[in-house]
Design goal:
The chain is built from eleven helices and 15 strands. The protein is an alpha/beta fold. It folds into two domains: 164 residues, Alpha-Beta Complex (Quinone Oxidoreductase, Chain A, domain 1); 139 residues, 3-Layer(aba) Sandwich (Rossmann fold). Helix 4 packs across helix 5. It starts with a strand and ends with a helix. The structure holds NADP nicotinamide-adenine-dinucleotide phosphate. The site of NADP nicotinamide-adenine-dinucleotide phosphate has 30 residues, from helix 4 and strand 9.
């Protein structure tokens, strides 16, 4: 059996329960591509799988221990082999996209969830993109129905989703206000926000009737306050909300849907989809330099636990990356 190194979990917990073990290398299905991973990014999605929270998730993910031992979804790397039905990628092509189990030397991805990596972008910058940018784009464009000239507020502008949302809202022609703390004000302005609200000194919800769309990555304000600062036909799009141990973001989401049920304003909740056309759109934006990844820190594979503990603080500046080099792990 050919083996590889992969991050595995056999119980729920914080970063310390992650082990790097030798397991079987994935084999390529007919519509799949095996990628030699160079970098993978950490998402709250992975953190939920690691901690087994909210507990509600364990109904499908495993009650006492995780059913699926691997972590990671955002990947960038080099094509190692392709399935029989894949005729537009060859070994050696550099790619980015989504694949379950990305914190490993090799991962099998569906062809449809990969695009070619632009040569002007590093593996780390490429691995940062998929979930964060898909969530931002689909929240703004599909669920927010954003139109050009509208005024968008991104709450949590400096995080993994927010740093792409600020840029994508601008690319879609909107006027953007980003909410972040003092240390990130310059960054958010550099990403194209016309206004920046420093949440440590200012309160965006005081701006009555101001925003056509709120993309909320934090969910830390009263719903009445979101309603107050939205325009009469404004949309409140819930991306993330406080991570309650039992039900997670569900109570905030339900409260939002109920509070917005009547009247001309509306609310939406959603789960980002791995849409091939959207990944292709990001490839073009990265190629032309129109969109960039903000990277907080790159951790070597050996220090993956620290990467998860960093995400857990809730104060990442952009994306946290794990760099994976098969060569450096050979001989383990
Ligand atoms: N619906 C979906 O499909 C989907 C997909 C992806 C993510 N999500 C959810 O979306 C949320 C955000 O994800 P993410 O990857 O962006 O998380 P993240 O990178 O961990 O977000 C961290 C950022 O949040 C900022 N922040 C913390 N407290 C804040 C506050 N009170 N006001 C404004 N900003 C604040 C931090 O800035 P400071 O350091 O300056 O405080 C930091 O930059 C998570 O809850 C995640 O589970 C949902």
């Amino acid at each position: 059996m050919t083996t590889m190194c992969a991050a595995t979990i056999d119980r729920y917990g914080s970063g310390e329960v992650i082990e790097i073990n030798r397991i079987a290398r994935p084999v390529c299905g007919p519509d799949q591509v095996v990628v030699a991973v160079r970098a993978a990014s950490v998402n709250p999605y992975d953190w939920h799988k690691l901690t087994g929270t909210p507990l509600l998730m364990r109904m499908t993910g495993g009650v006492r221990k995780p059913n699926f031992r691997l972590l990671g979804i955002d990947v960038a790397g080099v094509v190692e082999s392709v399935g029989d039905n894949v005729d537009d990628l060859v070994a050696g092509d550099e790619v980015l996209g989504c694949a379950e189990g990305a914190f490993a030397d090799y991962v099998a991805a569906e062809r449809a969830t990969l695009v070619k990596k632009p040569p002007n972008v590093s593996f780390e910058e490429a691995a940062a993109v998929p979930v964060g940018a898909l969530t931002a784009l689909q929240g703004l464009r599909d669920h927010g129905r954003l139109r050009s000239e509208q005024h968008v507020l991104v709450n949590g502008a400096s995080g993994g989703v927010g740093t792409y949302a600020v840029q994508l809202a601008g690319i879609l022609g909107a006027k953007v206000t980003g909410v972040c703390s003092t240390k990130n004000v310059d960054l958010i302005r550099s990403l194209g926000a016309e206004h920046v609200v420093d949440y440590t000194t200012d309160d965006f919800t005081k701006n009555v009737n101001e925003y056509d769309l709120i993309l909320d990555c934090i969910g830390n304000r009263k719903i009445a306050h979101y309603k107050r600062c939205l325009s009469d036909t404004g949309a409140y799009i819930v991306v993330g909300a406080p991570k309650g141990r039992v039900l997670g973001p569900v109570p905030h989401m339900l409260r939002s849907l109920i509070a917005f049920k009547f009247g001309s304003q509306r609310a939406a909740i959603f789960m980002a989809q791995q849409t091939p056309g959207d990944l292709e759109f990001f490839r073009e934006l990265l190629s032309s330099g129109t969109m960039r990844s903000v990277i907080d820190r790159v951790y070597p594979f050996e220090n993956i636990a620290e990467a998860f503990n960093h995400l857990e603080t809730g104060h990442a500046k952009g994306k946290i990356i794990v760099s994976i080099s098969s060569e450096s792990l050979l001989g383990r």
